[in-house]
Fold each of these.
Amino acid sequence: MITKWMKNYIAEHESQEGIPLNPQQKEFLEKKELLSPEMKILEAPAFSPVYSLSNKETDEPLETPANTGSLPVSFVKTQPASYLFAEDPSFAAIGIDGVVLEVDDVFETVTALFGLQVQKKHGEWLKKYIDAQLGTAPGTRSLMFSADDGLWDVNIALDYVDGFSESNTFDETLALMYKFVFTMLVALEDEA
């Protein structure tokens, strides 16, 4: 699955000046021997997602701060009635369209919600992996398969992800979440 997505990613960028890869992508592709010597590898730009702020109840768009990516992620705790949606091209390479960041009203954790393109049959494995990485405290994770769009609706409390801090910027937080999901998908492919 992740191998297929990364092959597609390479194919999309081969005709350009080079293939932009972040460290996780490069390490994975080298391990799988999917990079040929003639391929020019570029350092992927840092995460700089497009953000939009919306009301949780109505989904009505709110004024999004111009410098959202550099704000500390604790911003969502100061805006409990809203959520922040983020899109970045690198998410597509790991089967995610976009990510919602918000504060969980009950557990007061910063959570990431996203749809993940993984087959339904891998549900138990996903749950066990996330539990092993984040623990099983109440509110740590929820997963539900949506038959309508064929995606896993994933909700994880970022407070339990190694390296997370509320002082991290939104860009840093999404890079951390990307790394977590990428590593999970590599482990899933190795198991399957």
Amino acid sequence: MSRKNIFAIFVMLGLGLGIFWWEARNINFESLITTIQNLNYFWLFIAFVSILLSYGVEAMVLHTLLKKKEDRKFGWWEMYRIPLIQALFNAITPFSSGGQPAQLVGLMQSKIDGGRASSVLLMKFIIYQTMVLINFIIAMLVSFRSVAQHFSGLATLIVFGMVIHLVTISFLLMVMYYYDFTKKMVQVVLKPILFFLKKEKRDRILQSAIKSIDSFYKESLVLKKEKKKVIKAALLTVVQLFLYYFVVYFVLLALNCDHVSIVDVLVMHIMIVMIVSIFPIPGGSGGAEFSFKTLFAGFVPSTSALILGMFLWRFITYYLGMFLGIIAVSKKPRISKHQVVSKSMERK
């Protein structure tokens, strides 16, 4: 891991501590201690299990899209470490932009061809974004009117987040179904944007963009023929998302908020995911905490419990992924040359 990445980790940890200190500065310390003592640790444990299972199911999604009959057997750590690496680099880069390239490096460390890995990761990304959008649309149909009525400011952010997801998915679908048009469009759009760069750098960026489009298109042709694989990956992604969404519900149960509606809580968490996606600060820091306080204040009986709940939820869904990601980056899979060579000989 580079010094720049290590510095980013410390910056985000410092920013997180600063946010929680600011939110908790006026809380009665004795009240906070009492809230901690009264926690239901069973449900807190279930919250941790839920997020770990979410990473596990995401690894299954990757394995489903990646696996071919002629491949060697992939070890569980090879697949499980990739979502953890993604969690780390999503957490320390603006708009979660570092997750995709970091996953690519992780797969290449497992001796998986870079072009193939890149294409599979793009397909995994479009499936994920599609499932997030579908869940969000369902959540809006269920409860958006209530959110818009009580939290008009957040309602605007929520809709903006949906638009960003929709544009992203639309572009990737255009690559799949309108390949030539999309390539030309990207060139037309990028050229004026990159006009002020040196010619060599401009050409390098354009070539990289076209190469990524070509790679994704080739993989999409293969996966369009394997509809069962895509459907299985989509269903697993839904399970992955709900394991993630359920974390906040389990945290509320740990705070002894037994009266909460599971549907309302899931809807609120889905909306937070949309809001966080539009904040350029890594991890949506600040926006995530503000959204949690705003949306869940009515579920939690006291300020100390609300702040503690925010801390627990944020640690489990954000900071835990960072710490596990550091382990995943440092603990590379052991792939012997014999495994790779023997499989390539079998294919011949």
Amino acid sequence: MKIGIIDLCKQIEDPRMNRKKVHKMETIIYISIAAVICGAQSWNEIEEFGNAKIAFFKSRIPDLEFIPSHDTFNRFFSIIKPEYFELIFRNWVKQVCQEVKGVVAIDGKLMRGPSQCDGEHTTGKEGFKLWMVSAWSAANGISLGQVKVDDKSNEITAVPLLINSLELSGCIVTIDAMGCQKDITQTIIERDANYIIAIKENKKKNYQLAKQIIDDYWDRDEIINRVTRHVSENTGHGRVEKRTCTVVSYGSIMEKMFKKKLVGLKSIVGIKSERTIVSTGEYTQEVRYYVTSLDNTKPEEIASAIRQHWSIENNLHWQLDVTFREDYSKKVKNAARNFSTATKMALTILKNDKTTKGSMNLKRLKAGWDENYLSQLLQENNF
């Protein structure tokens, strides 16, 4: 039995004083998510949307007499602990996903709007930068959770916190070069998952070692037992693209080769991307290197997982920036973090709706126009 958003909200502590509670916590959250689905971005817009749809909300929220003011929305999302609201989100995601399998991509994103200077939040002061690290299930097409990077810390310390909060058994966790750390790899292995992590030149010794291991096999037609290869080629948009994935595995000895800095390391991966423009014959080539806890028995699966990692950029970060205009938000601190979580809820609801074809913008417009469609999105089995 799935739990609705209203019931989930009732499970957490309301931070407001009883004498100041005019509207229930679940009422404020419910109206906010509905408004964000339909395009609202500010507290004023949420209030105006609620007033425009007052009959709609009265028919669904018992004892609702009037819509909270924009100041009420602002105050509520500013005082509620983001950890509480994030817990609502994660519990709700478990209801939506049931089970997470396949690739879980982890990546950080700076919320540029909340990170702009103003009189209160200036460069160097606490709360100036709002950097969030998110986990994305490529198979489910859903954000699994997020963690704020502390002012006096960085993504390296935030990633293990996020990983430990998720059910990742059997998954492949993909991370960019920030994940090439002992603590991060150890946390992933302890969660009964595997990893594929990019390795860049700023990690000079590890990068050179990985490059040396892979480069010996690029041009060899003969592949020995510890090396496997997968080649894919496609044509489109006036170009031909060829991708060669080479996986070299020495098993557990790999950990010693990298001086035990990467727990569970078994293989090195090289991805060679070759592109030819059909009309001009222009040719370009790029080579990227990765470390992984997977062996070399399934190079096609590894190549696919690496490509799926980019879905967090295309399907989460891009949508947040372009469709929901997150970078233009002027909210700060708790309000910015909590509104980001509400936005991810709205995005997930819209992405999981299969009844309306078309862009995310079209779905948001339709939800604002058609109350039956909005009701369909907000019904209990979608929460």
Amino acid sequence: MSGDKRVHTSVPDTETAIDRNLPEFPAAKPIDEDNYFRLHKPPPYLSQISRDVADFINYHHLQKRKIVLVTSGGTTVPLENNTVRFIDNFSAGTRGATSAEYFLENGYAVVFLHREFSLLPYSRHYSHTTNCFLDYMTESEDGKVEVNAEFQKEMIVVLRKYRHAQNNNLLLLVPFTTVHQYLFTLKLIAQELSVIGSDALFYLAAAVSDFFLPSSRVPEHKIQSQESGGKLVVDLEPVPKFLSRLVDSWAPISMIVSFKLETDSSILIKKAKGALERYNHQLVIGNLLQSRKYEVVFVTKDSERWVRLSKDQVDAGIDIESLIIPEVIKLHKSSIEEKKKMGL
């Protein structure tokens, strides 16, 4: 199949979405934080990440460059230690990877906390598409691999941006897979970023699991279907809502942006305002699953404002993140100025 006739199996059926008029889980308290991180083992590689993150932050802090932590992709919940089965969250990391590029273009250094093998800045243009990467290539008469002429103009632009980020140490890639890895790493990076205060920005675009299986109930090996009579019953616990701990404790001076994805337009604003009241951060960017690539709503404590692509922009293939990121940066600048007036 080719062109518009391709079959896409990754798009969920929004007509059968569950009712989201349900109360949110309560914000995490200090005791929830203590219990969670005490009862679960940190990733064995965390010390290496700590060194890399600290070096990255110190490097850009000396250059007085602002740093944004962009989280991207979905988390998994393993059902076995030797994992064969797991529960996943729907997210390819498109919003996060695209946003990271626009932050880089606007002078920020980016710590990109992403689901391993999800979309990455710059390479996203040529991965996770309906075209095979080899479709961009051709063989020259002398047997060398070359980029097809029709793609060269676009590809050289992307390549130059990527090289600029690499050569100037502007992008640090930090992976996660499980929800435990994500939360441990988020706390670590947040505490490292706290040293630069209001110059740090948190752009939390990852799709984080709402439920997890406590370590004490995770079997070591693959669950055998014969032992359970052909049924699998899993008793999950709610993941503590650590956004409150990020705001209050881990990075109290930084600006924090969260996302609220819904399928029902009638409750989107209400849910976004509820998140602001619950967690006391600065901005929620609301979006609907059906239209998230074309419009979002900025919800603050005092206002709500839609950001939309025009029909011409949609037809031209403009990323809505090219509109989102400059607006976020304006708000971050105002937040920095306000914190300076307060002596923070």
